[in-house]
């Protein structure tokens, strides 16, 4: 059987564009004489549609789109993902479903069994799990069709009580097919490959796995769709972070003609290592994910131009370089806003960066605005010593100027805060925390430096002085980040243990970190939840990002 994989980037609720893409891939599959073309999970409406799924009209449009696609599924089978109504009154009103279309009819409807309700996933909010499991017969082959999470319950610590494949394999299928919307994070691609291969080894069936690609607000899907033969050989791997199309032939004996290099580690080898700082393992993938996240956010929202504050520091430099690559240098405006405490070399570094990138930039000194604030507040501040209030006035002045420029000229403000700062509250609400999209909010400071080195891999784009100088907010004389925070190489590792690995203070201290330092860092994280709750969407590149995937109470007392 010749099976086509259509790895595509969908736009949530944009039925016209989604259907147009799907039909184009069907036509391509027909030209290549494929028997079946496979698309990704929820390709009809885009994933995750969240509370749009509660609108009856939204679901009606899904069925209308399927009716349109059906007309093109005449001589070829088409496997698409969509919400489906539950005809039984008990339970949720919808299923997460796959529809097999052929001869202009719906030949099979398969429902997802394992509904992830953790991290960024909230499927049990909307969907009823499958209550029956049947293979689909198509052109003399018996297809075991599953949806994303359905094949993930396979390691030695299963999240669910059973696997739907254990039901389907009893019906002697010939091929496993999985429609997926599996997001990127810096370790997930290897884990995903390992899980898929483990299914092949367990069930001794070839697998066709089609994953979504593209960004939906904060979640980035990396594609990397896969085909394995029944012996566990990797036969096809589609590229990451781009739309792609491929056709493979699965022979009657379960073999596949093509083979690719297989370096997949077994599941047991990809468990988190408590002593390894894993965020630095896949900087190339993180770079691609951030570019995809910026690009899709702007395209799908209808935006074209970005603006950001360029300070001469590493965070704004990396954000600017990423934005120029994603949107085009002419569409990204940098604004340098020196204060009385800004050093000349920081301004020069920021100017040099924009000249290297060839993006437009402006220099707006904030001295007069800052002094006006101080003059207005002097009757109330009186002779109180200079402190955080005066520092934050500078940051909020910059935020106001950036938003004024954005409003006047139609820019979207990109936020440049990193994960280390957001975790510890080292940022100013309505100042440097302002923005429409957080580019580096899921990247620790060490990752930001690694990204800078990666951006400079073919020549200097980010000036070396920006990379090598001590980080500083420059809001008071001779200020350094190290005055307020632990050294980043220590801070980041403690934060990683607490945020990504969900380790408590006792476990972190047992790894050798200073007890008082751990207590201080964790208190900073918990006491600043109120700031993060007001932050913009963050492009997710880790297994546990701030935002929809990390839901903590603002007024909680844990470790406070």
Give the structure's gist in a few sentences.
The chain is 35% helix and 17% strand.
Please, could you describe this protein's structure?
- With 560 residues, this protein is of the alpha/beta class.
- The protein folds into two domains: 2-270, 4-Layer Sandwich (Nitrilase/N-carbamoyl-D-aminoacid amidohydrolase); 278-532, HUPs (Rossmann fold, 3-Layer(aba) Sandwich), CATH 3.40.50.
- Helix content is 35%, strand content 17%.
- The chain is built from 16 helices and 19 strands.
- It has helices at 15-31, 56-70, 164-168, 188-203, 283-301, 314-327, 344-357, 367-381, 388-409, 419-424, 445-455, 464-468, 488-499, 505-510, 515-527, 529-532; strands spanning 2-7, 36-38, 77-85, 94-102, 105-111, 136-138, 141-147, 175-180, 207-211, 213-216, 219-222, 226-228, 234-237, 244-249, 306-309, 332-336, 361-363, 412-415, 437-438.
- The strands form four sheets. The protein has a six-stranded mixed beta sheet, covered by helices on one side.
- A hairpin with a 2-residue loop joins strand 4 (94-102) and strand 5.
- Helix 6 (314-327) packs across helix 11 (445-455) and helix 13 crosses helix 15 (515-527).
- It starts with a strand and ends in a 28-residue tail after the last helix.
- The model has no long low-confidence stretch (mean pLDDT 95).
């Amino acid at each position: 059987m010749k099976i086509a994989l259509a790895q595509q980037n969908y736009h949530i609720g944009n039925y016209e564009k989604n259907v147009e893409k799907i039909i184009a891939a069907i036509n391509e599959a027909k030209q290549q004489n494929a028997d079946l073309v496979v698309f990704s999970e929820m390709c009809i409406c885009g994933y995750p549609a969240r509370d749009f799924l509660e609108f009856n009209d939204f679901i009606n449009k899904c069925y209308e789109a399927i009716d349109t696609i059906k007309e093109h599924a005449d001589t070829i089978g088409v496997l698409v993902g969509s919400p489906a109504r539950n005809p039984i009154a008990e339970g949720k009103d919808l299923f997460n479903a796959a529809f097999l279309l052929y001869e202009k009819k719906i030949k099979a409807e398969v429902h997802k069994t394992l509904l992830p309700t953790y991290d960024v996933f909230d499927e049990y909010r909307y969907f009823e799990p499958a209550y029956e499991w049947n293979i689909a017969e198509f052109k003399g082959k018996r297809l075991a069709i599953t949806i994303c999470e359905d094949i993930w319950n396979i390691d030695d610590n299963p999240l669910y009580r059973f696997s739907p494949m254990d039901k389907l394999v009893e019906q002697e299928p010939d091929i496993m097919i999985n429609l997926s919307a599996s997001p990127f994070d810096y370790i997930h691609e290897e884990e995903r490959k390992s899980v898929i291969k483990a299914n092949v080894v367990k069930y001794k069936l070839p697998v066709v796995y089609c994953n979504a690609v593209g960004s939906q607000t904060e979640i980035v899907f990396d594609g990397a769709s896969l085909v394995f033969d029944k012996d566990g050989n990797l036969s096809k791997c589609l590229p990451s972070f781009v739309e792609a199309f491929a056709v493979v032939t699965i022979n009657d004996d379960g073999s596949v003609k093509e083979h690719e290099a297989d370096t997949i580690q077994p599941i047991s080898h990809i468990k988190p290592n408590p002593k390894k700082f894993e965020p630095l393992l896949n900087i190339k993938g993180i770079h691609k994910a951030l570019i995809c996240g910026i690009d899709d956010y702007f395209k799908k929202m209808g935006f074209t131009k970005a603006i950001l504050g360029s300070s001469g520091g590493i965070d704004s430099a990396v954000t600017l370089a990423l934005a120029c690559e994603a949107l085009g240098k002419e569409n990204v405006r940098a604004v340098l806003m020196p204060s009385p405490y800004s050093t000349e070399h920081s301004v020069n570094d920021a100017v040099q960066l924009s000249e290297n990138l060839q993006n437009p930039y402006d220099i707006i000194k904030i001295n007069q605005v800052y002094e006006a604030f101080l003059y207005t507040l002097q009757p109330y501040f009186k002779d109180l010593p200079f402190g955080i209030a005066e520092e934050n006035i500078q940051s909020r002045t910059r935020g106001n100027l950036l938003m004024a420029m954005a409003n006047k000229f139609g820019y979207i403000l990109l936020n440049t805060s990193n994960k280390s700062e957001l975790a510890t509250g080292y940022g100013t609400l309505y100042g440097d925390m302002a923005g429409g999209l957080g580019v580096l909010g899921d990247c620790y400071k060490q990752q930001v430096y690694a990204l800078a080195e990666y951006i400079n891999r073919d020549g200097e784009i980010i000036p070396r002085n920006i990379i090598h100088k001590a980080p500083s907010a420059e809001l008071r004389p001779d200020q350094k980040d190290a005055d307020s925070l632990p050294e980043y190489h220590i801070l980041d590792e403690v934060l990683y243990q607490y945020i990504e690995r969900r380790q408590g203070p006792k476990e972190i201290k047992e790894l050798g970190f200073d007890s008082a330092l751990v207590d201080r860092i964790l208190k900073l994280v918990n006491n600043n939840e109120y700031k993060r709750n007001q932050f913009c969407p963050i492009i997710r590149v880790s297994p546990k990002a701030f935002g929809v995937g990390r839901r903590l109470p603002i007024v909680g007392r844990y470790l406070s």
